[in-house]
Design the sequence.
């Protein structure tokens, strides 16, 4: 049993040594490309929608989650500093009634694209495990927004949004020039909603967490 335990420890140590010796070093001028599943989980906060006279109605909304293909591209300005563009295929979200519409279920849906640019600090660029953190700007554009259920046939529009964003992630070498990536983003997304050409109006704070797991390579 002791021999087997020692052999296991030696095998793990040898594997770590091999990973360290074959690490895909990151340096200035490299372009890192990652692709994987990106999951948007909104932290929705909705004010009371106001009617056309400006009076609160008690109507609120909630926004559902969605998973799509995520892509990001990082250009390494120095060995430690990178600039990343986060992109994805369009996210599709259900809009559910809340407040006085809490029993109405799904009352609409929308699609959005949230391109996000962050400046990142890569903590261990020469290692096999490379954590990084960053901050930047998010732009979110909404489209194909429409009413459903109780609001079927009703015009709904959501204004585009600019806001701050942050990210923390890590790349782990898989060998043969590829690495595993995991990252968590937070974005400040606020939109003004207009229902029925001004019948109801209100601000919705979506402020999602975006979790991405994928694989990447370097050029």
Sequence:
């Amino acid at each position: 049993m002791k021999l087997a335990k020692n052999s296991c420890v030696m095998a793990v140590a040898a594997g770590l040594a091999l990973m360290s010796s074959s690490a895909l070093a990151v340096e200035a001028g490299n372009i890192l490309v990652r692709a994987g599943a990106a999951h948007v989980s909104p932290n929705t906060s909705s004010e009371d929608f106001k009617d056309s006279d400006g009076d609160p109605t008690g109507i609120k909304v909630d926004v559902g989650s969605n998973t799509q293909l995520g892509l990001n591209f990082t250009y390494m300005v120095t060995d430690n500093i990178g600039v990343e563009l986060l992109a994805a295929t369009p996210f599709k979200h259900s809009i559910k009634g809340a407040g006085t519409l809490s029993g109405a279920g799904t009352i609409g849906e929308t699609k959005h694209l949230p391109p996000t640019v962050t400046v990142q600090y890569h903590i261990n660029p020469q290692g096999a495990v490379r954590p990084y953190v960053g901050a930047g700007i998010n732009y979110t554009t909404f489209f194909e927004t429409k009413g459903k259920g109780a609001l079927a046939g009703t015009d709904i529009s959501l204004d585009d949004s600019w806001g701050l964003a942050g990210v923390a992630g890590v790349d782990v070498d898989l060998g043969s020039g590829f690495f595993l990536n995991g990252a968590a983003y937070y974005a400040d997304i606020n939109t003004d909603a207009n229902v029925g050409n001004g019948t109801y109006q209100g601000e919705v704070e979506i402020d999602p967490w975006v979790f991405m797991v994928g694989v990447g390579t370097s050029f």
Summary: The helical segments are 2-21.
